[in-house]
Amino acid sequence: MLSKIYEKKGLHKKALESYQQYKILNDSLFNKKNIEKLAQLEADYKYKQALDSANIRELELTNTVSETNKNLVKTQRNYLWAVIGVLLISMVLGSVIFYQKLNHAKSKTQRIITEQKLLRSQMTPHFIFNSLSVLQGMILNKEEKKSVSYLSKFSKLMRITLENSRDKLVLLSHELFAVEHYLSLQNLENETYQYNITVNDSIDSNTFLVPPMLIQPFVENAIEHAFKNQQETKSIAINLNYSNENLICTITDNGIGIDAQKGVKNGNKISLSTAITSERLKIISKDLNVKGWVTIEDRQKYEAQGTLVTLVIPYKLVEAQ
C-alpha cells in the first residue's frame, strides 16, 4: 500500500497521513457494504415475511374454499335426501290412497253386480213359475202346438239368459233376441200385449257389444206394473237409434204411468231395480269410456199416457277381423 512505500522511504508523516486516509476510506467502504448488506438482508426478510404471509392467506383461503365446498356438497346431499324422502312418502301415501280408492271402487262395483244378480234371482223364479203355470194350462187344455211352441221359446230364452249372464258384454243382437223371446212368451197365451222392436238402419246389431240384461228389466217392469186394471189394448214399443255416437234405446208403454206406479204396491221394487241399473250404467260407462244413463218419465208431460224409459247404452264395437 502507499503508506508502506512512504514508510520505507522514511517519509513517516506522509506514511501516517496515507494510512489514515486509507483507514477512513476503508471504514467508509466497509460501512457502505454493511449498510447495503443489512438493507439486502432486511429486504430479503421482508420479502420472505410477505411471501410467508401470502402463503398463509392462500392456505387459509384454500381451506375456507374447501370447507365451503364440503358444506355445500353436504347441504346438497341433505337436500337431495330430503327431496327423495318427500317423494317416497308422497308415492307411498299416493299408492295407499289410490289402492284404497281402487278397492272402494271394486267393492262398489262388486256390490252393484251382486245386487243386480240378486234382483235377477228374485225375478227369474217368479218368471219361471208363471211360465210353467202357463205351460201347464196349455197342456191341460190339450193345446199341443201352442205348448210345444211355448216350451221351445222358453228353453231358448233360458239358454240365452244363462249365456248372457256369464259375459260382461254381449252382441246387441243377442240382447234383443232375449227381449223378443221374453215378450213373445208373455204374449203367446192370449196375445195380451202388442209389441214391436224397431232397430234403426244405422245400427248393425252384430257389431255392437252391450252389457247384458239392461233392456229386459224395464220391459218386465212395464208388463208387471204398467197395466194394472187396464182393459184397453196394452202396447210396448222398443226403439233403438244411433245418434252423436250414442246408442239410445227407448221403451214406451201406454200403461198407467210411472207417477201412478210409485203409489202402488211394489213401487219400491221398481225404484230399487232402477237405482241398481243406474249405478251399473255409471260403472260400465266409466269402464268403457262411453256415455250411459237412464231416465224414466211419465208421458203425461208429452200429453200422452204411459211411461217413457230412455236408456243410453254404453257399448263397444266389435273389432274388425
Task: Report the CATH topology name of the largest domain.
Answer: Heat Shock Protein 90
CATH level-4 homologous superfamily of the largest domain: Histidine kinase-like ATPase, C-terminal domain
DSSP, total strands? 8
- Outline: rod-shaped
Terminal CA distance: 132 Å
Give a short account of the largest sheet.
5 strands, mixed
Based on CA atoms alone, the radius of gyration comes out at 54 Å
Q: From N to C, what is the helix and strand string?
A: HHHEHEEHEEHHEEE
What structural class is derived from the secondary structure elements? alpha+beta
Strand order of the largest sheet: 2-4-5-7-6
CATH class descriptor of the largest domain: Alpha Beta
User: What are the low-pLDDT stretches, counting only 5+ consecutive residues below 50?
Assistant: none
**Which CATH architecture of the largest domain is right?**
2-Layer Sandwich
Number of domains: 2
Helix-residue proportion: 55-70%
